[in-house]
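Long-time lurker, finally posting.

We've been working with Exostosin GT47 domain-containing protein (Salix udensis) and I want a structural starting point before designing mutants. I don't trust myself to interpret raw outputs, so I'm hoping someone here can both generate the structure tokens and explain anything notable. Sequence follows.
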Amino acid sequence: MALEAKRPTMSNSRRGFYVRMKLLHKHAGPQQQEKKKNLCFRYYKCLLWLSLSLYFFSSYFITHKPIPLSRTQDSKSKTVVSRTLFESSNSTLNQQNKNVDRGLLKDLKVYIYELPSKYNTDWLANERCSNHLFASEVAIHKALSNSLDVRTFDPYEADFFFLPVYVSCNFSTVNGFPAIGHARSLLSSAVNLISSNHPFWNRSQGSDHVFVASHDYGACFHAMEERAAEDGIPEFLKRSIILQTFGVKFDHPCQDVENVVIPPFIPPESVQTTLEKYPLTGRRDIWAFFRGKMEVHPKNISGRYYSKKVRTVIWRKYSGDPRFYLRRHRFAGYQSEIARSVFCLCPLGWAPWSPRLVESIALGCVPVIIADGIRLPFPTAVRWSDISLTVAEKDVADLGRLLDHVAASNLSAIQKNLWAPDVRRALLFNDRVQEGDATWHVLSALAQKLGRSSRTVRLSNQ
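Top reply, 14 upvotes:
Generated this for you. Predicted structure of Exostosin GT47 domain-containing protein:
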């Protein structure tokens, strides 16, 4: 066919064009036949190009979810983004993480602010930072970072926001203990940074933001109770959620904030190594054990005595009793002593909580808790009354008789409960969240606080 355009004659004062189709003679010349072949080639070439274009465009839109402009603007914040944190333990992240019960946690999502390294990873240059008793701040950060079931890189789908600031790794050159005088300013700086570069803190006034305060008196950030209570919790943290080792059953300024009591950090590797040498059901040749600071002549410090003199009474009354294995000096292998003991004394120090509590349970020694009013971690998961003994501070001088009574009555039942694997698992932190471990119970506690989540409130109002 050929197309021929022809101007028509004027009709009814209207102008226009019409196209007349003219059949080519079937015996057209070679030049016209060649022209026909070229037209067919161009036609099929264009059709092929159009088909491929539609295929690639449709594939792109199916596999790429568009991000609203407001989110792309947020991603251009001044905060330095680095996703190489803990890369040595992230080698398995490409595998499906099946360790978290998504049904129980109700698809909980946590966004981790990727702060400049001065707030966290710079402190890891000191190996103690990730291994000492206050290292739950590092352990929780690591576990959340490595658990893609829980972590989200999209802050707009997050239920909670985690600020990884390590405040307990500034070790004193004088006594080796963590110095936390810098904690308030470091945390304040981090909050100013995220509130200036992201909308999420200001949106909720920090109510869905989570911090770790694993020192003696939590977010009061002081080792002495009177000073800690006097300073109180910084105003900028009072609307947030604090994961803290400190907890008591009575009113206290250092827990006057939404909080979750967490266990102190004990390296799970050290527990496993000890249990390989000393099985839970192995021989326990030490009846009652304690190793730690016990002052023979307690010093009056600002009107207070260390351990409220409880440890002094223990030493004075029982240091000569062969049933009690009491030592006042450090020993690198003291976990082996715990694993060989029936009862492990867990008296208060300056604060009511102690890492001995976790070590005793992890190594199968019945903890004897001597700290009036202490609030223990994860009470819905760990039935503390079934696995431990509680002795009032005023009754510590009668400790021997109380332990004799338990040994003669229900010790075997307590040990059976204590040695259950889920009890030990609940108090230990792992590199990735595992069902039933300490970080898993932290997330379970957060799932009970979804009313503080801006995302949850927004969705419920839709």
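Before you design anything, note these points.
DSSP finds 16 helices and 15 strands in the chain.
The two ends are 61 Å apart (CA to CA).
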